[in-house]
Amino acid sequence: MSTPELGLPMAVAAPDLPARVRIYEVGARDGLQNEKATVPTEVKAEFIRRLADSGLTTIEATSFVHPKWVPQLTDAEQLFPLVSDLGRSSGVHLPVLVPNERGLDRALALGARHVALFASATESFAKANLNRTVDESLAMFEPVVSRAKADKVHVRSYISMCFGDPWEGPVPIHQVVRVCRALMDMGCDELSLGDTIGVATPGHVQNLLAELNEEGVPTSVLGVHFHDTYGQALANTLAALQHGVTTVDASAGGLGGCPYAKSATGNLATEDLVWMLQGLGIDSGVDLARLTATSVWMAERLGRPSPSRTVKALSHKE
Questions:
Q1: Which pLDDT score is estimated for 265?
Q2: E-assigned strand segments in the chain
């Protein structure tokens, strides 16, 4: 018998936490883009549909980057039409990553209404990922945001390397705040603070959030994106929740990493996050059993077990 059938985890609320958390599911994009083998388009579409069936309402579908950089997502034009009806029939948001105006053109042509940019808090990562300086990348994003907002498209921006950089080491908080403030000023609706190599700790998380607030970036526009390289992703998430953050990025089955930061391991597993939220009495709208079954299904197609501890525990057979 699985633990959910026994009524576990027991919900015990902690003080000063949000009543509901929105999970921003990134497995279909951030997870699958790091696979060595290309996942068939039909499997990706089925994965997204199964994620939606589990109750997830924000599922990042794909990326409109040049195939040279992310060959695993070259089928964006073929994939998006296979799942776009979820937005119309089920109210599921299907954001897509767009690196520049060309990517925005491709996304808008297919009817995307939620897009995401990929910024960097450090010069080294901006050069590796965007082939530009931080300021040059911000200048590149300005027309993308302007055009998207003119078309009433929701714009999120990821900010990578908010807590540490594999080339530069510790990243000063004021450096992260400057980039976040610039993105908000140009019109981004939402900012996702990325711990790209998984080196953040709870105190660092809370200090960054507090400094952002002091500089006029409200908690309401912030999400967090933690990698579990050193086993800190859930602890860091709890620190963010205690600060009032209500959007948490996660990846079904713990899929993902970062192709430009080799020390980055998988994202926070959505199942591990949901287990913690359920134990805290926080609503996410997600059916954990269905989500676990989906990650097991995808792991079988990838030919390896899921790294998620919760998936392993709930799918264990005697």
A1: 62
A2: 22-25, 58-59, 62-63, 96-97, 114-120, 154-160, 190-195, 222-226, 247-250
Number of CB atoms found within 10 A of residue 111's CB: 12
How far apart CA 33 and CA 264 sit, in angstroms, is 14
Q: Confidence band (pLDDT; 50, 70, 90) for 261?
A: very low
Would you tell me how many other CB atoms lie within 10 Å of the CB of residue 237?
A: 25
Q: pLDDT at position 258, please? A: 47
Q: Which residues are tagged catalytic?
A: 258
**Can you spell out the DSSP letters for 79-141?**
HHHHHTHHHHHT--B--EE--SHHHHHHHHHTT--EEEEEEESSHHHHHHHHSS-HHHHHHHH
- pTM metric for this prediction: 0.95
d(CA 128, CA 259): 10
Which is more confident, 170 or 33?
Answer: 170
- CA 99 – CA 141 distance, rounded (Å): 8
Rounded to an integer, what distance in angstroms lies between the CA atom of residue 207 and that of residue 50? 37
Residue 106 in tokens: 């491709």
Q: Which residue has the tokens 């009524």?
A: 7
User: For the purposes of burial, counting CB atoms within 10 Å of the CB of 216, is it exposed (0-12), middle (13-18) or buried (19 or more)?
Assistant: exposed
- How far apart, in Å, are the Cα atoms of 21 and each of 58, 137, 221, 311? 12, 31, 13, 20
Look at residue 260 and tell me whether its pLDDT is greater than 60: no
Above 90 in pLDDT, residue 167?
yes
How many CB atoms are located within 10 Å of the residue 221 CB?
17
